Amino acid sequence: RRIHPFKDDKILASWNGLMTAAMAMAGRILKDGRYTISAVRAADFILNNLVREDGRLISSYREGKAGVPAYSEDYAFMIMGLTELYETTCEPDYLKKALLFADDLIKYFWDDRNGGLFIYGTDSEQLITRPKTIYDGAVPSGNSVAALYMMKLSRLTGRYDLEEKSNEILKAFSGSITAQPISHAFSLMALVFGREKGREVVIAADSLKKAIPFIDKLNEDFRPFTVSVFYSPGDPVLNEIAPYLKNYSPLDGKPTVYVCENRHCNAPVTGIDDFAVLLEG
To answer: How many Å apart are CA 43 and CA 98, to the nearest integer?
Structure first.
């Protein structure tokens, strides 16, 4: 009788980050709560089981035991997943965690001399060399995902230092990207995102229920260069991580939308039709 072969059934932070992002986007775009629930379950499992008491992310988990400290792609992919999950659920704790992971990504992996992110951290086993990678294959590189999503976090929270780090990543690997663009697809996405005229949308309302019609309108079409924040005045998490939002409030008790481009905001609107005009402008 054949011996049953072994199987690799460990849970990886990196792959769960990718799945969280995909499921969160599917839930948001298709308006299907099943996908959103899957994204929440995946993200919550990682946050509850693969994060040490000091906040350090762990790379893998199996049979109740967490493995070695996470690599740069684990952090980058979880940042991607949590950012997309925030834009789907409007739950600010996910945005806060993405921001904390971004700070740790820079703390443990940043190359102070040449820019970019090393594969393993300063607190991991020190090998003969510390490599970096930017190649995007079947799975994108940690550097390219970090470049795009630190830009998005920057625009969501007002942390412009994160966008500067993103630009430094792209500059550090510009030779490789230019020489073979087809092998750096996700890096090109980050490059285009940084150069296009993006939009930041702040939807201010007393409750998420009142903001839903505006969120649905925003998600009706493909808007790859737009990021959005739902802000309820007095929200302690958002006031902590994105203090600029204190300047945005509902007008006359109505849900109010602020559409900003290149750090300049249009006049706020309170009607769906007026919001649609701004989106198409």
So the answer is: 11
Burial 39-53 (b: 16+ CB within 10 A, else e): bbebbeebbeebbee
Q: Enter the tokens of residue 106.
A: 């820079």
User: 253: which residues sit within 8 A by CB, 6+ positions away?
Assistant: 206
Contact 163, 191 (CB under 8 A): no
pTM: 0.95
Secondary structure class of 103 (helix, strand, coil): helix
pLDDT tens readout for residues 154-165: 999 999 999 999
- Identity of residue 245: L
pLDDT in tens, 187-213: 999 999 999 988 999 999 999 999 999
CB 75 within 8 A of CB 46: no
CB neighbour class for 73 (10 Å; exposed up to 12, middle 13-18, buried from 19): buried
Domains of the chain, with CATH numbers? Answer: 11-195 (1.50.10.20), 199-280 (3.40.30)
- Positive or negative, the CA dihedral 11, 16, 19, 23 is positive
